[in-house]
Automatic annotation (TrEMBL):
Transmembrane domains' residue ranges: none
GO CC annotation, single: Rad51B-Rad51C-Rad51D-XRCC2 complex
Domain RecA family profile per the UniProt entry, residue ranges: 11-223
SUPFAM superfamilies, per the entry: P-loop containing nucleoside triphosphate hydrolases
Organism, scientific name: Ambrosia artemisiifolia
PROSITE patterns: RECA_2
Name of the protein in its database record: RecA family profile 1 domain-containing protein
Domain of life per record: Eukaryota
GO biological process, one term: double-strand break repair via homologous recombination
Length: 304
């Protein structure tokens, strides 16, 4: 088997076709729809508080845990599990269930309206319970619990095919960890515990996970938004966004994709709803998307 693999001869086009078939790119819902993500991508969703960052995670989670179809009803999901690491400890599980139930009900209603199949529709409660079993949740109250959760994930993921690892507010404990690093050490031979060493370990543990499990990592980050006229440039009629970066370089260099979201004052496109903008920083795109949050989820400008 190994000799056959070594002696295999294929072109770059054949290799790409094979890899993309085995590990297809993931197309996320708006406002993350501009750039599809491949396996082992690390997407950072940065923005001030509030800027709908957790709402974006929930929207992606619902798309992931929904089934593709049941009894002829097209739900349009991926049928994959999601692991949600809540570092803010503020996840509204009712909001997740609300979004999920609305998607299930809408799919069943559309199935009835089209009348495209004589098969009975799936029981909504059954589909809902099936989806919720794919949503794995862990709450962490400090960096030690966060690191412990990452270290035991290899064991947990052996029985669950997790497609997306979500980390809500990756910098939640950064200021606390910085305080630890400034304290005098009782034992000089003991390694100093601080933000830098914590995130070096975080990145190492996530890398170990990605070596064994084909996953995509989505992490939110709360930042302080600033507009500096001396450095800002005009982009799509607005000011290019800048913010104060505080995460260690270890994490910054680990991220492969980055998007910045922020609230807007202009509500003309979405009525009286709070509006947000989404700007890709890595890779840098000249397009800025606008969206709002409603009861049924995220409403982007393309659907208005």
């Amino acid at each position: 088997m190994a000799r056959a693999w070594i002696n295999a001869n294929e072109s770059a086009k054949q290799m790409l076709s094979r890899v993309l078939k085995e590990r297809p790119l993931l197309h996320l819902p708006p406002p993350l729809h501009r750039i599809p993500l491949g396996v082992n991508s690390i997407l950072e969703i940065a923005g001030p508080s509030p800027s709908a960052k957790t709402e974006i995670l929930l929207q992606v989670a619902v798309n992931c845990i929904l089934p593709k179809n049941r009894n002829g009803v097209q739900y349009g999901g991926l049928e994959h599990s999601v692991l949600f690491l809540d570092l803010d400890c503020r996840l509204d599980i009712y909001r997740l269930s609300q979004l999920l139930k609305l998607r299930i009900t809408d799919a069943n209603t559309l199935h009835k309206t089209e009348g495209s199949s004589n098969q009975p529709e799936c029981d909504e409660t059954y589909v809902f319970n099936e989806c919720m079993r794919r949503f794995l949740y862990t709450r962490c109250y400090d960096s030690f619990e966060f690191l412990s959760a990452l270290k035991v994930l290899n064991h947990k993921l052996t029985s669950n095919s997790v497609h997306i690892l979500m980390i809500d507010n990756i910098g939640a404990f950064h200021s606390i960890d910085r305080g630890f690093s400034s304290l005098p050490q009782g034992n000089p031979s003991r390694k100093n515990i601080g933000a830098q060493s914590v995130f070096e370990t975080v990145v190492q543990e996530i890398k170990k996970l990605l070596e064994l499990h084909s996953m995509i990592v989505l992490a939110t980050k709360t930042v302080t938004y600033q507009v500096k006229s001396s450095y800002s440039t005009r982009v799509s009629g607005g000011l290019k966004s800048t913010y104060r970066e505080y995460m260690p370089l270890t994490w910054q260099s680990f991220v492969t994709r980055r998007i910045l979201v922020r609230p807007l004052d202009d509500k003309r496109k979405f009525g009286d709803r709070v509006c947000y903008s989404a700007e890709w920083l890595l890779p840098a795109l000249s397009i800025t998307d606008e969206f709002a949050v409603c009861d049924t989820g995220i409403l982007d400008s393309l659907r208005v």
